[in-house]
Amino acid sequence: MDKDKLKTAVLGLNHEGLLLLEAALQTELFQIQAVADKDSAVAETTGKKYDCAHYDDYRRLLTTTELDCLIVAAGLYSCHEQLRMAMKKKLHILKAAPAGRNFEEAAEYVNTAQQENVRFAIANAKRFGQSYNMFRDFLREAMDEQSGVLTSICNYGDCARPAWHSDPKLAGGGVLLRDCYEIIDQIVYNFWLPQQVYTANNSMAEDKKHRQYLTEDTAIVTMKFSDTLVGNMVVSRVFGPRQEFLRLCGKNRILTVTDNKVLISTTSSGRIIKRRLFNDNRLRWCREMVTNFALSILQPDKNELCNSAKDNLLNMAVIEAAYLSARTGMPEQPSRILEMALGSAGKKTASER
Fold first, then answer.
1. What is the pLDDT of residue 140?
2. Is 180 found in the same domain as 143?
3. What are phi and psi of 246, to 5 degrees?
4. Are residue 275 and residue 289 in the same domain, yes or no?
5. Are residues 152 and 259 in the same domain?
6. pLDDT tens digit string along 277-320?
């Protein structure tokens, strides 16, 4: 047993869970003690591959395995109680996005983690992408460019997803919560909390009655950040091919960022004046992310957790405001959701930058 490695288990062996598992192993900061999935065949195959215990019962894993932390990629409908149990057992948690099925649930996890004094991080892997870091650096250096129009187009039509993603009770939300979480995180991370959010969303199912029982698969979100900066998102998971970008049209420059590219062009003519391509991939992002998570536990005085769940409450407030706006037909304020849910702590979180 290596005392410099974190004894870890993985709950949920879907694509994201296996990616996080592989990334954790590559850092050599984790010792995988066990894996678990509701599909016993998947759990057994993965356990044999990585030479560790395997379970199809999450509770049994937690009660029989000695751990330091937990990587969670399973749907919360299947492991909500186990997540709370893990925190009360003083386990640090890295959870695949989103932070919760709704704002209230995410806030509950944050409060429990604070009470138990454990790390609770959300796997916003884009924060570790080279293109997104360049985008952030540009914004820091050119603060005068943080005005104008922010646009994001997100199509996820060619992405496979489990059937429960379409069930509002199990998933909590559709394309905004499940597919766009990390791009919303980038917007909030770089431009802070919108003052107002206005949303129209819909399910494109042919049967009108059937639409009422499905999560949304198409949405338009308009955001006001200030008197000089507004944003707009057009998102869908029924139209393809896959496309996801964030674009800021500023006073003098247009800055466009994707997973592996940054383009800077002139506002007047659109002429590209700088192009950077990155040989980057999600596995590398995840490797950097889980390294940050591990070091924040092993060497907390030297390493700050980059993607804490408390920070992610800002994302959840924006998404909650978007869903509320879609129901009321009115603009909603994410800061009010933070304040109502968290009281004075919410006011502090909303005002800090």
1. 86
2. yes
3. -125, 130
4. no
5. yes
6. 999 999 999 999 999 999 999 999 999 999 999 999 999 999 99
Residues 272 and 217 in one domain: yes
Strands 218-224, 196-202: parallel, antiparallel or unpaired by DSSP?
antiparallel
E strand or H helix at 268 = none
pLDDT of residue 343: 62
- Residues 290 and 270 occupy one common structural domain: no
Rounded Cα gap, residues 103 and 341, in angstroms: 8
Query: Are the C-beta atoms of 157 and 331 separated by less than 8 Å?
Result: no
Alpha-carbon gap, residue 71 to 288, rounded angstroms:
15
pLDDT at 209: 63
Please count the structural domains in the chain: 2
Token digits for 69?
Answer: 């932390």
Percent of the chain with pLDDT over 90: 83
Cβ–Cβ < 8 Å for 188, 127: no
Rounded distance, CA 340 to CA 34, Å? 39
| Long-range contacts of 87-90, Cβ-Cβ distance < 8 Å, separation of 24 or more | 87/112, 87/113, 87/116, 87/118, 87/120, 88/112, 88/116, 89/62, 90/116, 90/117, 90/118
Single-letter residue type at 260 = N
